[in-house]
Amino acid sequence: MNPIAVPVGAPHAALAVPCLATLVGADMPIGPPARRADGPVLHAHHIRRMEQVLDFVDLNLAGDLSLDCLAGRAAISPFHFHRLFHAWTGETVKEFVRRRRLETAAGRLRHCRDERVTDVSLGCGFASSEAFARAFRDHFGMTPTQWRHGGWVNWRVSANDGWAGAPFRIDVKRHEAIEVLYLRERGDYAVSAKPLWTRFLAWAEALDVTGQPLLSMGVDDPAITAPAHCRLDACVQVPPGWVDPGLRPLRRTVPAGLYASLHYTGPARHIGRGWDALLNGWLPQSPYALGEGQFFERYDRQVSTPGDDWVDCALRMPVRVRPG
Predict the structure, then answer these.
(1) 77-104 tens-digit pLDDT
(2) Which pLDDT tens digit goes with each residue over 39-75?
(3) Domains identified in the chain and CATH numbers
């Protein structure tokens, strides 16, 4: 779950090349490979596979996320995959999977009050409520129930938490699936949106997709995830009939579904207030509950561009009808 999509900072500090995150969208020699002092060389095709595996984990938290399973998806031997994974993320496979299961569960406990703790734990891949409670306490320093009843307030101050009843208009409608091309960056939200989008827009021009709608998609919740682990995807919608000129970009589909949408116009530095209005102001009082899927900002390139100081965009949050 990711209730805010705002600027993200530099790639993981362990990487030797500052802008290596821009390579995840292409298998071409844009820059040198990365290497930790004690780790393997990471080429562009390795990075693409690592990022695809990370996305698979987020979409399959309740499933088999063992080393053998993930290595198989990447078509790399488990031994080599584990070394590459750690070099790229700074975490072991087990550490990453455990963290994402716990962070996702924490988000659902906070925002999905109709879900039982047991259902949340099973849905995030824990074998039992007891195992979930132990892991949750180890990570967050409190029980899942304490977190749900307000303990999250003191965990991490989010850029979202600035809503004061601002008069935003919010609509709910079903949107069709969107196929996008994307690049990914890691780091503290609020540092480097402009550099990321400058690189991305030049890349999009090389792919001949300029003029298409842009999506800024925060993968992680900055109220829960440590800044160094936050991921931001810069995306462009794929036009009908588009043919890859040979750059082999990362590509995925944003699924169809029901979304609450808020039209935000204002300073980019205050966009978190719009997300907070959706998530913490409107959602608890609405007939809807938080749905599965990605939060994102949608930009019309002719009107506004992510990374601008002043932005005009639609903030979209997945929802479902609250059970009666």
Answers:
(1) 999 999 999 999 999 999 999 999 999 9
(2) 677 778 888 899 999 999 999 999 999 999 999 999 9
(3) 170-321 (3.20.80.10)
